[in-house]
Amino acid sequence: MNALGNIHVPAAAMADDITIGELLEALGHHPSSRLTFRHDGRPLRKGYHVTEVKAGDFAGLDCGANPEAWTEIFVQLWDVDDAPEQMTAGKFAAIIGKVADHLSLDRTARLTFEVSDGIQPMQLHRAATPSMVADEIVVELSPRPASCKPRDRWLAEQQATSSCCAPENSQCCR
């Protein structure tokens, strides 16, 4: 359970990367609450706009020549102070709902936020699980890092098969 109530979010997503479905589920519990996105240690200005939502299916080869395929949703946020009131969770969900009326949105797709003030170049961010702060829903955005998928898979396998610190082992060698 997180600060928004009885919402199940996978442990990996809690750390730093949620899907559009998980975000919408969390926002649905408090539709009239103000929705604040934070990045670089500060909130987006209260008049931010959702200027574009894109959905895409991607295919490619990773650095180990392994085929990769994924679906991704991009939400573009324009960081301006151009509205008298801050967007609510319900309004954000309605914008995404309108997009879903025209595009097929995979609720389990990787979610990326593109953020710019219209002057600085767009930056790509991932979103953490929303938290409730007073009467406001806060979504922390952090830069989306590059990764080496073969290395990431190898590290996951090593962690899963480690005899030293495996869960069934009562002692951990350090």
Q: Mind explaining what this structure looks like?
A:
The protein has 174 residues and is of the alpha+beta class. The chain has one domain. It has 4 helices and 8 strands, in the order ααββββαββββα. It has helices at residues 11-16, 20-28, 89-102, 149-161, and strands at 34-39, 42-43, 49-61, 67-78, 110-116, 123-127, 131-133, 136-143. Strands 1, 2, 3, 4, 5, 6, 7 and 8 form an 8-stranded mixed β-sheet that branches. Strand 3 and strand 4 form a beta hairpin. The longest helix is centred in the middle third of the chain and has 14 residues, at 89-102. The radius of gyration is 18 Å and the shape is globular.
In round numbers, the mean pLDDT is: 86
Q: Report the end-to-end length measured between terminal Cα atoms.
A: 32 Å
Number of domains: 1
Total number of helices: 4
Q: Give the helix proportion (percent range).
A: 10-25%
Low confidence ranges: 1-15, 169-174
Work out the oligomeric state of the chains in this entry: single chain
Radius of gyration: 18 Å
Estimate the strand proportion: 25-35%
Question: Which structural class matches the secondary elements?
Answer: alpha+beta
Characterize the biggest β-sheet.
8 strands, mixed
Q: Give the overall shape.
A: globular
* SSE sequence, one letter per element: HHEEEEHEEEEH
The total beta strand count reads 8
